[in-house]
């Protein structure tokens, strides 16, 4: 075999090995997609003082379950990830900045996000009607539903601080 052909095959083989090493398996992609931090949030505008107004999406087999999941995702986005800026609103950082807060306070958040749980106290306004058009999409395994909502952000922060889950803003470093 000619030296230039060997060099070409070596380069081709090394390129394929490097490209394959970075690819994600189906299982890894499924874990990332199902991550509790995978919230789709779009800011709709500036809300009244102490509130955040945005649209968030939920996934479930039934539309009603996807609406409930979207409400949970909206509150969870405020707590764990923060809200992006847009449409005149500044970005808002996460209330719980502690890494792995969801695992550290698992018992608290399991009860907080239970069906009919305390999280609903902070969802002030939503489009509870069955969504249609771009807010209700049939996807593999169920529905993707977008819900516009107003979250009582300041009340949520105060209660999480009072419960010892989030650090107070005036607490030192």
Walkthrough of the structure:
It is a single chain. This protein has about 170 residues and is an alpha+beta fold. The protein has 2 domains: about 1-35; about 35-160, no CATH class. About 40% of the residues lie in helices and about 20% in strands. It is built from 6 helices and 5 strands, in the order H-H-E-E-H-H-H-E-E-E-H. It has helices spanning about 5-20, 25-35, 65-80, 100-105, 105-110, 155-160, and strands at about 40-45, 50-60, 125, 135-140, 140-150. Strands 1, 2, 3, 4 and 5 form a 5-stranded antiparallel beta sheet that branches. The longest helix is centred in the first third of the chain and has 19 residues, at about 5-20. It starts with a helix and ends in an 11-residue tail after the last helix.
- Largest beta-sheet characterization: 5 strands, antiparallel
C-alpha-based Rg, rounded: 22 Å
Mean pLDDT over all positions: 79
* Number of extended strands: 5
* Stretches with pLDDT under 50, minimum 5 residues: 18-22, 29-33
**Beta-strand level of the residues, as a percent range?**
15-25%
Number of domains: 2
How is this structure best summarized?
With about 170 residues, the protein is α+β, with helices and mostly antiparallel strands. The chain has 6 helices and 5 strands; from the N terminus they run ααββαααβββα. Strands 1, 2, 3, 4 and 5 form a 5-stranded antiparallel beta sheet that branches.
């Amino acid at each position: 075999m000619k030296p230039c052909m060997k060099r070409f095959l070596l380069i081709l083989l090394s390129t394929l090995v490097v490209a394959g090493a970075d690819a994600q398996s189906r299982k890894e992609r499924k874990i990332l997609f199902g991550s509790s931090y995978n919230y789709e949030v779009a800011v709709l505008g500036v809300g009244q003082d102490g509130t955040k107004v945005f649209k968030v999406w939920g996934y479930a087999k039934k539309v009603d379950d996807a609406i409930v999941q979207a409400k949970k995702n909206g509150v969870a986005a405020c707590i764990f990830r923060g809200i992006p800026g847009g449409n005149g609103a500044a970005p808002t950082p996460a209330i719980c900045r502690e890494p792995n807060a969801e695992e550290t306070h698992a018992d608290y958040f399991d009860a907080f996000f239970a069906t009919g749980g305390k999280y609903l106290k902070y969802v002030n306004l939503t489009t509870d009607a069955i969504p249609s058009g771009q807010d209700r999409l049939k996807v593999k395994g169920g529905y993707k539903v977008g819900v516009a909502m107003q979250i009582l952000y300041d009340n949520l922060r105060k209660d999480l601080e009072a419960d010892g889950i989030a650090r107070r803003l005036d607490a030192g470093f």
